[in-house]
Amino acid sequence: MSPRWTPNPGVRTGRHVVHNLHIHLVFITKYRRNAITVAMLARTEEIMREVCADFEAELMQFNGAQDLVHLLVRYPPTVQLSKLVNSLKGVSSRRLRQEYDSHVRHHLWDGHFWSGSYFAGSCDGPPRTLVKQYIENQQHPA
């Protein structure tokens, strides 16, 4: 009988899969407007943590500035990234527009919060550590 293989702490297992998938996401505001306040950044993180949990994913790192947010997400192989991104952007946009209506309308007037585009980069190991440090060092909104 061979010894049982034990995965690293960061590696997750499922019934038929062993995985350790991470994605660095960047979302920018529509027209790159400085629409995000400190309070909105904190609320955005809460919302995005909830969305990730719904997908059985984990928001490992989050930060941003007045016109963008950075996320480092660990996700299972069953998650379709485009659906996760659409939910993160859609749910956060809807809730931020509801909760900060007058502020958002002052900066963004066409019914959208996020730009239609986004950045997604896969990362693991030492590059993941560098991405986490990069996200931590992003400037907070004024």
From TrEMBL:
Transmembrane segments: none annotated. It comes from the Bacteria. GO terms for molecular function: DNA binding; transposase activity. One of its GO terms (biological process) is DNA transposition. Pfam families: Y1_Tnp (PF01797). Residues 18-138 form the Transposase IS200-like domain. SUPFAM superfamilies: Transposase IS200-like. InterPro entries: Transposase_17, Transposase_17_sf. SMART domains: Y1_Tnp. PANTHER family: TRANSPOSASE FOR INSERTION SEQUENCE ELEMENT IS200. This is IS200/IS605 family transposase. It comes from Streptomyces montanisoli.
